[in-house]
């Protein structure tokens, strides 16, 4: 799983790796087909010189040479040894298989073994003197074929090693670039965390401090004011806690897992709604399913969605009732918050809008869902979000 996530972050590297594996696989297929064809040709040639008899010692040795070449990636020495003996005894009929063995030796940088095998094969032809010998004068001497096989193997091996070195260098550069990008992101996140701390933490601390001081003067304050002060102090301390969590997440080097974030549970949603009711907001809640049926990331999104919706309702329609509907049951987590238009605000000034809905939309889309917010029927305002549950092996794609 970790390897899959690593390649998912680098699709281009994965594609290049797949292409290299495909090229190596087709090269191996082509070599195997060539070895089989040359082996059959050598057996056919031996049968022609043996009066049409295929079951001979030469055929057995040639088949053994072919099998050794096909399994050359396991052991390197059987194929050169067998082809050297067969070429030394029978000469040119086995020469193509011998050239492949020399090519493989040169490809592995075993030049001394290739030179020794060539010398042994030529010496065997000179001593045994078969009917078809490598020493028979030809337009191009047999020695040229041996040299060409060695040179071709050297070139192919060096080219493959060069390509591997370049691929390793590219991978190193890609990793270095990712580390630099990660360092830049961490520096940016630290700067954002410092700015948020300087701007918000001080003001929230002042609010909590002054509300705490006022709460100590309960004897001289009316009961509604005491309730509002208690609610304001609780909200400010909770905001400081949330701010501390956000700053900690921004300064964390590792990305929080979607399966285990510091998400508020259903109890926090109920507490938030109760606090809003204590402030005079009329809220009706309908909950379907259990929070355990939804991932923790969904529960965190539900908390933020309802929090933003209730805040907007208090700003734009403070006296309007709010309806909240939450569904945790598969196949998706649903959140719907509606409220009718309220009366004009007391001071008549419009309330400025922030970026809460933009952040909520980005959060929901990051989880694969979608968010709709805007006027509904009969002048009501409606916020609705649908976040599909992740597909797992347990529930399957159709659950």
Helix-strand topology string: HHHHHHHHHEHEEHEE
| Total number of helices | 11
**Approximately what portion of the residues adopt beta-strand conformation?**
5-15%
Overall average residue pLDDT = 77
Structural class: alpha+beta
Largest sheet: 5 strands, mixed
Percentage of helical residues? 55-70%
Order of strands, main sheet, comes to 1-2-3-5-4
Q: Radius of gyration over alpha carbons?
A: 39 Å
Kindly state the number of beta strands: 5
pLDDT below 50 for ≥5 consecutive residues: which ranges?
1-9, 253-266, 345-352, 393-399
What is the 3D shape?
Answer: rod-shaped
Distance between the termini: 23 Å
Structural account:
- The chain is α+β, with helices and mostly antiparallel strands and 399 residues long.
- The longest helix is centred in the middle third of the chain and has 74 residues, at 142-215.
- A 5-stranded mixed sheet has the order 1-2-3-5-4, covered by helices on one side.
- Helix 5 runs antiparallel to helix 6 (111-128) and helix 5 runs parallel beside helix 7.
- The chain has helices at residues 2-9, 11-49, 57-70, 78-90, 95-107, 111-128, 142-215, 223-251, 266-278, 296-316, 356-366; strands at residues 283-288, 322-327, 332-339, 370-375, 381-388.
- The radius of gyration is 39 Å and the shape is rod-shaped.
- Strand 2 (322-327) and strand 3 form a beta hairpin.
- The protein is built from 11 helices and 5 strands.
């Amino acid at each position: 799983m970790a390897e899959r996530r690593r390649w998912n972050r680098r699709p281009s590297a994965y594609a290049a790796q797949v292409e290299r594996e495909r090229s190596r696989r087709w090269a191996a297929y082509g070599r195997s087909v060539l070895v089989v064809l040359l082996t059959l040709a050598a057996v056919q040639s031996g049968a022609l010189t043996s009066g049409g008899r295929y079951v001979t010692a030469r055929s057995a040795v040639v088949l053994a040479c072919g099998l050794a070449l096909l399994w050359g990636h396991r052991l390197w020495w059987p194929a050169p040894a067998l082809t050297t003996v067969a070429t030394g005894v029978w000469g040119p009929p086995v020469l193509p298989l011998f050239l492949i063995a020399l090519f493989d030796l040169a490809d592995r940088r075993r030049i001394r073994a290739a030179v020794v095998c060539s010398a042994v094969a030529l010496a065997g032809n000179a001593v045994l003197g078969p009917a078809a010998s490598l020493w028979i004068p030809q337009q191009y001497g047999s020695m040229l074929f041996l040299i060409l096989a060695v040179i071709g193997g050297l070139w192919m091996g060096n080219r493959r090693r060069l390509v591997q070195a370049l691929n390793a260098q590219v991978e190193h550069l890609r990793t270095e670039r990712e580390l630099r990008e990660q360092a830049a992101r961490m520096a940016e996140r630290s700067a954002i965390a410092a700015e948020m701390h300087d701007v918000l933490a001080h003001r929230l601390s002042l609010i909590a401090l002054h509300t705490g001081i006022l709460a100590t003067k309960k004897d001289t304050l009316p009961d509604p004011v005491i309730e509002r002060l208690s609610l304001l102090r609780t909200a400010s301390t909770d905001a400081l806690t949330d701010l501390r969590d956000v700053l900690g997440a921004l300064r964390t080097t590792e990305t929080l897992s979607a399966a285990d974030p510091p998400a508020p549970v259903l109890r926090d949603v109920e507490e938030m709604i109760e606090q809003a009711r204590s402030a005079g907001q009329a809220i009706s809640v309908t909950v379907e399913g259990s929070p355990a049926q939804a991932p923790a990331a969904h529960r965190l999104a539900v908390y933020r969605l309802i929090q933003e919706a209730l805040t907007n309702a208090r700003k734009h329609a403070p006296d309007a009732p709010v309806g909240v509907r939450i569904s945790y049951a598969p196949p998706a987590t649903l959140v719907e918050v509606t409220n009718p238009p309220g009366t004009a605000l007391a001071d008549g000034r419009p309330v400025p809008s922030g970026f809460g809905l933009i952040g909520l939309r980005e959060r929901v889309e990051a989880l694969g869902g979608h968010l709709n917010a805007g006027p509904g029927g009969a002048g009501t305002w409606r916020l609705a979000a649908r976040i599909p549950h992740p597909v797992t092996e347990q529930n399957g794609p159709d659950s």
